[in-house]
């Protein structure tokens, strides 16, 4: 059986710039409605919806379908960034920036204090993806996070999930769609059709 899976990264969050992982950073109502309108124009507003439980994803899902029809998937939350999760960059003490810099250079080798390791994050997402594929029966929109989409692509394409380039060079912008074609059967087969296609651009970008 063939199904289309659309991985949608949530809209741009409000508030100061930060590493928003498990923190429940909101998305403006106007942005949520603009995403919904863009999905409707592409014929994607009436699909089965699977969502991260965080409001920046679930808030949009609730605007797309009846809440009772949404499949909420906790394992597709963003990575947990420990001590830095949700802390505005301009409030991080100067003596702790070296930790962030090392993390960005090599997240597998230098996990953030109190945070999720990259290995644990990848295993969480990859396991959830395997379960999702096993249950897939129809075209589906997955409303999730940039890091989750990167780890799904690493699993699907058999890439090295430890490679920092997945985060520094693979652009998965806010309100962007990644389209996968999934054929399930005796041997599942996934084709990546598009990656990180913007529904629209925010001002200044």
Please explain how this structure is put together.
This protein has helices spanning 29-41, 55-64, 97-105, 118-135, 146-156, 165-168; strands at residues 2-9, 48-51, 71-72, 140-144, 176-183, 189-198. Helix content is 32%, strand content 18%. The model has no long low-confidence stretch (mean pLDDT 95). It has one domain (2-198): 3-Layer(aba) Sandwich (Rossmann fold). Helix 1 packs across helix 2 and helix 4 (118-135) packs across helix 5 (146-156). It has a six-stranded mixed sheet with strand order 3-2-4-1-5-6. It has six helices and six strands. By secondary structure, the chain is an alpha/beta fold.
In short, what is this structure?
By secondary structure, this protein is an alpha/beta fold. The chain has helices at 29-41, 55-64, 97-105, 118-135, 146-156, 165-168, and strands at residues 2-9, 48-51, 71-72, 140-144, 176-183, 189-198.
